Amino acid sequence: MRKILLPILLSLFFVTGVNAQKWTDAEFRRANTAVNANYLTNEEKNVVMYMNLIRIDGEKFYYTFLEDYINNYNAKVKQYRNYNQLRIARNNSYYTSLLKHLKGIKNLPVYYPNGKLTDLSRSHAQDLNRNNLSTHESSNGDQFSKRISKYFPNKAMSENIDFGFSNSLDIICHLLLDCGVPSLGHRFTLIDQKYKLNTVGVSIQPHPSYTWCAVIDFVALPSADVEEE
């Protein structure tokens, strides 16, 4: 749950299912828990929304938004001579395993944004940018658990970091596929049930080496303490 997804060119299994499943207005309303979180940018709000859509109906997300992501990615890299190496392929084990995991994801509790947790996410993303780092460890040596525990003591927590993308759908699909990460830690954080994670902080910031970095922090709070903003 604590590893970083680096900005590599992915080789994935391409979805051939017809993009016929539609999301309802009610599902979007339920997913859009960050709509009034004025401390988030629109793209950061959409990060929360896409995470929640996965939790509302994982298989539907697989056949709709994830398919859009893959189609767009393949179209972008088609201009390159090594397209066959860059494109999202059909036989990648990370992609084939994803459908198995998402088939069981239906109507899970959604994530709610939190202002203080977002402050921590933003501080770390800015630290990564300022010091050209690509790690969960702060420039002063603090691990993410120490940073978060200062304000959220004795809580289950996790952190996902993505490099190379500023678009919310790209960020979430990149983390969800989790290619090159055998533990699938980013994927399992997004679809968490074990640790009851329910609260998130999000920050997307520039990065000198990877252009962009996105820090998403998660904690499990008692229901009464979850901010419905």
From TrEMBL:
The record's CDD domains line, in alphabetical order, gives:
CAP_bacterial
Does Signal count among this protein's keywords? yes
Q: Which InterPro entries match?
A: CAP_dom (IPR014044), CAP_sf (IPR035940)
Q: What superkingdom does the record give?
A: Bacteria
Pinpoint the SCP domain residues: 83-210
Task: Identify the stretch annotated as signal peptide in this record.
Answer: 1-20
UniProt keyword terms in alphabetical order: Signal
Work out whether the entry's keyword set contains Signal: yes
Family annotation (PANTHER family): SCP DOMAIN-CONTAINING PROTEIN
* Name assigned to this protein: SCP domain-containing protein
Per the UniProt record, the source organism is: Pedobacter suwonensis
